[in-house]
Design brief:
Layout: E1 2-7, E2 20-24, H1 25-32, E3 38-40, H2 43-76, E4 78-83, E5 90-95, H3 97-106, E6 122-124, E7 126-135, E8 138-148
Length: 149
């Protein structure tokens, strides 16, 4: 026996969200339906799927707008880190993404250190442009000033 199921999310090797697929009764009854990955094909489930997709689109749009607002704040911000240095402007240690994130937090900008695309720690005095990835579609540049203490 087989059952038609409307998929409520993408399932590898079965189908994409919104597709109507034919699966075995046991697979539908024991896996897809209890985990809310699929639902029997009815008009109510089609409306439910449309609402879920609209809610997801709204959430994605809100996340994008929040990331764009944060990008504007990050671009305007200036991060100054004072460190001890030796001859030839070489630092005793290095400036890491964690230190930059803590400095921004002190300025009121909450940013995860993983968002900072710092390929390697900064080991000399100067001004550096650090890319910040806030969203898959939004990237900003932060100016970091490393000065002698």
């Amino acid at each position: 026996m087989s059952t038609e199921v409307l998929l409520l999310s993408n399932i590898k090797d079965l189908g994409a969200e919104g597709e109507v697929v034919t699966v075995a009764d046991g697979y539908a009854r024991n896996y897809l339906l209890p985990k809310n990955l699929g639902a029997p094909v009815t008009e109510a489930t089609r409306r439910r799927l449309a609402k879920l997709q609209a809610d997801r689109e709204n959430a994605v749009q809100l996340a994008l707008e929040a990331a764009q607002a944060m990008a504007a704040r990050v671009t305007e911000a200036s991060c100054t880190i004072a460190v001890k240095s030796g001859p030839d402007d070489k630092l005793f240690g290095s400036v890491t993404a964690q230190q930059i994130a803590e400095n921004l937090k002190a300025q009121g900008i909450a940013l995860d250190r993983h968002a900072l695309s710092l390929e390697e720690p900064i080991r000399e005095l100067g001004v550096f442009n650090v890319p910040v990835k806030l969203h898959p579609d939004v990237q900003a540049t932060l100016r970091v000033w490393v000065v002698e203490e």
